[in-house]
């Protein structure tokens, strides 16, 4: 963990450095685990999203009308990947489907 704490207007932020020159920035978490300098084990949680737990019907309804835009959802996870201080497409770094 390179940084953990509040950052500008992003709220709780955790910045991971999996290797030199690569940074993963996660913002929008209600709870963040660990401290700067900690090593995060593979598969370990780094935090929890906030908000109320809606019932299943509300989740399905929001998913059907929002069309992936995040509209109508109370919480959004922000993910940024930087390589040598240049932004990268997070889809290149994270599995986006179950077969991924």
Quick structural summary:
The chain is mainly beta. The protein has one helix at residues 56-66; strands at residues 3-6, 12-19, 22-32, 47-49, 78-83, 86-88.
Can you give a write-up of this model?
The protein has 100 residues and is mainly beta. Helix content is 11%, strand content 35%. It is built from 1 helix and 6 strands, in the order ββββαββ. Strands 1, 2, 3, 4, 5 and 6 form a 6-stranded antiparallel β-sheet that branches. The protein starts with a strand and ends in a 12-residue tail after the last strand. About 12% of the residues have low confidence.
Based on the model shown, name its key terms:
35% strand; 6-stranded antiparallel β-sheet; 100 residues; mainly beta; 1 helix
Strand elements, count: 6
Strand content: 35-45%
Structural class: mainly beta
Radius of gyration: 15 Å
The helicity comes to 10-25%
